[in-house]
Amino acid sequence: QWSSKIPKGGFVVDRFLDEELGKVVQQVDLFHGHEGYLDVKEVSSVIENTGNLYSFSVDYNRGVEDGISAGKYDLVDHVDFRDFQTKQKGIRKVTPELSSFNHYITTDDVLRRVEKRGRPADFVELLAFGETYPNVQLKFPIVALESVFHSRGKLFAPYLGREISERSLRFALFGNGWVSSCRFMVIRDRE
Question: What is the C-alpha to C-alpha distance for residues 103 and 9, in angstroms, rounded to an integer?
């Protein structure tokens, strides 16, 4: 029989590993005032927006221009968005990780490290993130390395960033390194 309460020390078997739940419980002291039990809805809402995990739906059938418009960005680099294609189809809920390495890092090093946990996010997933969580990009740049744009013999990767107090959708040189403040969106394998 299912219960809407989780006993202290119990397991959550949906999308999150016990270790991840343990980190969340420690970070926000979820058991405080609950006499050893947690409400499932409270745990879910905290997990979805804690640390570097975010949950949202992606409509892979929607055009890139529609995704940009829905994101309501203040500044958008001018490129031919028809070049961006996604391999995914349909509508899917994802819970990507925003990986930070806290130091300058090359694109090759990022891709090697990301490969251990999943795959880099594509442009459509980045746009859906920006639409769902518009203020996160004001804290740090969020990069999607799966989609690249070719211009004048060079590759560029899309990222969500901040220009003073405005939200931006920009493209950075793919082969260069990345500053320590960047977060790299990773679509985890178990999704």
Answer: 35
